[in-house]
């Protein structure tokens, strides 16, 4: 591989000469700036060999560096040749500062402005200007020019998403969002997020792994009319009837010329999520940029009754699939048959595959035995999968894309005997999970305000975890949907009825074990609250999968918490029992007995 990479680096360096630049920045992101990147856009991987989900490389004429975060310190050294790249930190070694320290004044740094947000571009340009370094937008990305065996774009066609499943047709949605565009003082909005475009048009696609969207970009007018720029070969013949009046489809390559002719148009765009290229081009073409958030984000996040019905239905079927896997796992352990992490992940998917509405995983399954689970974003595909051992803990975090919704669940499982210390830690995590699940909060409360509910018991004992407590989840869309989040330092977006989030506190002991207990919950108005003076909300759990009572130290739970646990397990049993039989049903009845 490293011979390959050395050859590729040389090709990139030849392009530095062609473009008369001294450095080129290679982010992980592609032009859609989403979390998931199609194989043909994995430029960072092509240039370095690194497969992680976050990182950046910088190639100079005589040296190169790769920047990754704490999740990837081990992996980057396994995958990237240290004789070709220096290993640096995304956070401790800010890339622009590093370039300023490395390059002389009057040097030129090249970027492909499609792969960076406008906010990043503006900040980088300001820093470079001070240091008298030129920031150059390169027309032909050196990687795209050099990557001769680049994978072809996905050829799968767009799928039409039923208006019944969506709860509303595209015309209603576009008019609602158009009114929001007008309210922000704009004529047109750049709809750059792939899931926002798909939600607006009630379409889905198969262009990006784990994320059922079609590649493209939208321009939405204040009157609700929309142009969607995409690969026209993917657009089915009956599309006009499906999306309703006011939508036109154009080749994605035409977006640039449309943006360049926006003289006098007030264009709403999100500088933090839409790419710099589009906004700079519109600005050069005479548009007035109005910086704002994606107007689709909040309406999309607030699921309507049809979307919530789909989410509930798919969570019950998903509950059956995962429970059948857990029943199988227990029987294997009883027979002392130990599988590796990859076999376990494949076996879990085999149960989901029996559902005709299942499409694909909603993210790469985290199947982690023993010490591997202490790396909270572990991926068994990045090395040799470990085999389970007796008397350990197994953590499995997985999710599914179904036609009627998206799931994400983590269960922590006892394999044989576990220590009292492990039980204590699982129980502290469970207490936090229960505290968040049962929280009531007034309208206007953000996920940042609720985060400490989930951490309080760990904190009391001097422990914590280094990830957020909850992320939003889409409706047969992104398993990591914004803007709603629960975390220490997240945005102040208020949680609103219909939003779906994860509740997933955890604990990780380096080289020891990892614990996470995750359910998805929907925000709803408080059902049984008398005499409230404020509009109050609560969470309703969507996930129906047993939790492992063998890992719990009941003496650390209050009566309220014991009741919550028993009621949750009982509800799981009542919901799933009619859909299970034989040994699997016997297993379900046994593991959901009251503690």
TrEMBL record:
Residues 310-524 form the Peptidase M24 domain. Residues 535-595 form the Peptidase M24 C-terminal domain. This is Aminopeptidase P family protein. Residues 8-135 form the Creatinase N-terminal domain. Keywords: Aminopeptidase, Hydrolase, Metal-binding, Protease. One of its GO terms (molecular function) is aminopeptidase activity. Belongs to the peptidase M24B family. The keyword Cell cycle does not apply. It holds the Pfam family Peptidase_M24_C. Transmembrane segments: none annotated. Gene3D superfamilies: Creatinase/methionine aminopeptidase superfamily, Creatinase/prolidase N-terminal domain.
């Amino acid at each position: 591989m490293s011979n390959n990479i050395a050859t590729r680096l040389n090709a990139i360096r030849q392009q530095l000469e062609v473009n008369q630049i001294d450095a080129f920045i290679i982010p992980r992101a592609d032009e859609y700036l989403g979390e998931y990147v199609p194989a043909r856009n994995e430029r960072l991987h092509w240039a370095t060999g690194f497969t992680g989900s976050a990182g950046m490389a910088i190639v100079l004429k005589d040296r190169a560096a790769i920047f990754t975060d704490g999740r990837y310190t081990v992996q980057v050294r396994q995958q990237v040749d240290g004789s070709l790249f220096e290993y640096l930190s995304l956070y401790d070694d800010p890339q622009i500062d590093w370039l300023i320290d490395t390059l002389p004044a009057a040097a030129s740094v090249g970027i492909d402005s499609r792969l960076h947000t406008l906010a990043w571009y503006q900040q980088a340009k300001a820093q470079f200007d001070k240091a008298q370094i030129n920031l150059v937008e390169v027309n032909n990305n050196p990687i795209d020019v050099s990557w001769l065996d680049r994978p072809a774009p996905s050829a799968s066609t767009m799928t039409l998403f039923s208006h019944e499943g969506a709860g509303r047709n595209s015309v209603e949605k576009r008019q609602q969002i158009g009114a929001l565009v007008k309210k922000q003082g704009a004529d047109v909005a750049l709809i750059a997020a792939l899931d926002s475009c798909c939600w607006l048009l009630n379409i889905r696609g198969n262009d990006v792994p784990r994320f059922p969207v079609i590649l493209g970009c939208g321009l939405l007018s204040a009157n609700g009319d929309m142009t969607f720029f995409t690969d026209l070969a993917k657009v089915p013949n009956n599309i006009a009837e499906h999306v309703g009046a006011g939508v036109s489809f154009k080749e994605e390559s035409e977006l640039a010329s449309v943006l360049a002719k926006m003289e006098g148009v007030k264009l709403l765009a999100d500088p933090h999520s839409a790419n710099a290229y589009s906004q700079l081009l519109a600005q050069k073409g005479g548009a007035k940029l109005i910086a704002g958030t994606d107007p689709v984000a909040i309406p999309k996040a607030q699921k309507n009754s049809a979307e919530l019905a789909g989410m509930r239905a798919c969570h019950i079927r998903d509950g059956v699939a995962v429970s059948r896997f857990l029943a199988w796992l227990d029987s294997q352990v009883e027979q002392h048959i130990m599988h590796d992490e990859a076999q376990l992940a494949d076996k879990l998917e085999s149960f989901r595959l029996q559902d005709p509405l299942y499409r694909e995983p909603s993210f790469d399954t985290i199947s982690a035995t023993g010490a591997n689970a202490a790396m909270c974003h572990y991926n068994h595909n990045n090395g040799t999968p470990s085999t389970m051992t007796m008397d350990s803990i197994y953590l499995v975090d997985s999710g599914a894309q179904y036609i009627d919704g998206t799931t994400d669940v983590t269960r922590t499982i006892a394999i044989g005997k576990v220590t009292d210390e492990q039980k204590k830690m699982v129980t502290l995590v469970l207490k936090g999970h229960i505290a968040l699940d049962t929280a009531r909060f007034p309208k206007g409360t953000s996920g940042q305000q609720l985060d400490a509910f989930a951490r309080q018991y760990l904190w009391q004992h001097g422990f914590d975890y280094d990830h957020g407590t909850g992320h939003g989840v889409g409706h047969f869309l992104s398993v990591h949907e914004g803007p709603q989040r629960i975390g220490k330092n997240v945005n102040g977006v208020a949680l609103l009825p219909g939003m779906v989030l994860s509740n997933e506190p955890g604990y990780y002991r380096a080289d020891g074990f990892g614990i996470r207990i995750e359910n998805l919950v929907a925000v709803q108005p408080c059902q049984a609250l008398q005499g409230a003076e404020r509009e109050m909300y609560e969470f309703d759990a969507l996930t129906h999968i047993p939790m492992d009572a063998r890992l719990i130290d009941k003496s650390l739970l209050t009566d309220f918490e014991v009741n919550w646990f028993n009621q949750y397990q009982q509800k799981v049993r009542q919901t799933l029992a009619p859909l299970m039989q034989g040994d699997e049903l016997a297993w379900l009845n046994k593991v959901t007995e009251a503690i």
